[in-house]
Known about the structure:
Layout: H1 2-30, H2 34-37, H3 49-59, E1 63-68, E2 73-78, H4 79-90, H5 97-116, E3 128-129, H6 141-148, H7 152-165, E4 169-173, E5 176-177, E6 182-183, E7 217-223, H8 224-234, H9 245-248, E8 249-254, E9 260-265, E10 268-271, H10 272-279, E11 286-290, E12 294-300, E13 308-309, H11 310-318, H12 323-330, E14 335-340, E15 343-350
Amino acid sequence: MTLCAVLLALCVLLFLLMRLVLSGREIKAESCTPAEAGSIAIRTPAPTILDLYAYFDWTETTTIKVYDHRADKLVDMDLEEYIVGVVSAEMPAYYDFEALKAQAVASRTYTLYSMAHGGCHTNPDADVCTNSKCCQAFSTHERMQNAWKDDYANNYNRVAQAVMETAGEVLIYDGKLCDALYHACSGGQTENSENVYANALPYLRGVDSPYEDPMREEDVDFGTDALVELIAAKYPESGITKDNVRDGIAIEKAYESGRVETLRLGKTKITGKQARNLFGLRSTMFTVAWTEKGIVFHVKGYGHGVGMSQNGANGMAKHGSDYREILFHYYTGVSIASYGADGITEQATPAPESTGNPFVPEG
């Protein structure tokens, strides 16, 4: 019995010694220069032993194949490490910590949903890729260092902690993974999925996004000659000329959110999405005005407007919402569940049944 006690004491002492050594390495990593950071492993903030067990028990059996489109190579990567790279690329590291956690859950859900619905279309051997036009944006350590400079170690650890604190958490609706779309800034109102994409999904409903700061707004100007030339090249059947252009361009229909549904170009009608692509606009939430020199598109928001607004998530976090409240607001009626090697293993946090979106803006 005494021998057992001694062995137990030695085990505890050894564990504490290891924790001390790891903590020392972590402090060194957080305070190193960029040059030093490139030569040592950057560690996430030291978790508790329970967090550590929960994290590695889950990720040891979760490896995905990532196609690095810049390096043109296929890499086996831990899912959570991949999510760190995604969050680092998709959301500013200086955003509120709860917003980073919301982004981690959304990105993880989007990844697993995509893998279950065809995976990467860029490389058939990959689960996902690093090309945002196909999957999600992704930052390698080298790209993080180039972008963050002296803040590399601190930013990496901050993002990694947000990912680790939500490890394995995903959004589900009716027991299935959600297509957790997100965008940079909604312009104050997100959009119903069917107004942008083909399907009307019950959890991708338009909601208010009142705390977007700064509200992304810009004016895009075209002189009359350039405008007519652009339209004639893409839509010659429109009949737009210098003589009729001012009477020939008008917003015919808009969604409740304010995003343009149809825009008239002379004899031709185009969708708001087509107009966004044609004129290089940040979103389909725009108005049209004329000046002596030509046309002005006043644009609000940035992105397709469906799902979580990243800017709005940051605003909600600054006003006291945690990541669960943010997710429940932007994804209607969802629950947060645990996802492991065998799929969805446990429903952790259901959305409030009263409204589906518990967030209420302050008066």
